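Extended Data, panel c. Modelled sequence:
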Amino acid sequence: MFDDALSVVSDEPPRAGRIADQSLVGLSKAEKLSALRARMAAIDGRVGATEPPLRAAVDSSRVLSIAGGLGDALPEGGLPRGAVIACTGCKGPLLGMLAAATAAGEWTAVVGLPSLGLLAVAEMGGDLSRVAHIAAPGPDPLEVAAVLLDGVPMIVFDAAGGASPSRMRALLARVRRNDAVLIVTSTNWTRPDLEIRSDLADYTGLGRGRGRLRAVSYEISVRGREPHRSRTTRVQLTGDGAQKVRWATRETAAAAASIARTG
């Protein structure tokens, strides 16, 4: 296999159908072999990979960007447009996504979820003027969500029960047609394109019944329809002064704490 690969990048002039890799020109056969092995080891998913692959350029029109540590935990740094996303477990990261989307200028709507923490969204930097909250959507919340999908790019849908396959197909067609993001808080409605599970990992600041909460950490597991594409990231919600909080990955939070200690 390597001999075939080396013939493509040999020192002889390229013939028709042959592409020369100029970065290997002038190297000996052993050096070329070593360079090719290093490249193959860096390919994503290959056994023996020693470094992560470079992130490919992403079409921003296909992803609703989520800034900060939450975005680092999501594929391509945000939520795929034209997709249904199940967001289960702790609600903190869900509120963070609402905050990040509205802060970036996106209009959002929440159907159901009467205990929605709007104050928390504001403290995370969200713009509440871009959040429409329909806490009591009535007997047919699915119809409410369907109407909203024609004008709102991001909708959180929180309702018990399910729907007939025909109604779900119609709703999914609206999601795809409008390049919207539909976040459901239960997997009972449909099979999601992406599942985001948030679990409380730990917190700092409280001890033996007293103290002030300084940070909360979550384990965020993201899984697509292909099980081998799953990933888990720890993110932390920390105070940012002036009654504001921010999200950071564990590595970013640790670096910030080190800088704060050393000045």
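Residues 29-41 form the longest helix (13 residues). This feature is highlighted in the accompanying rendering.
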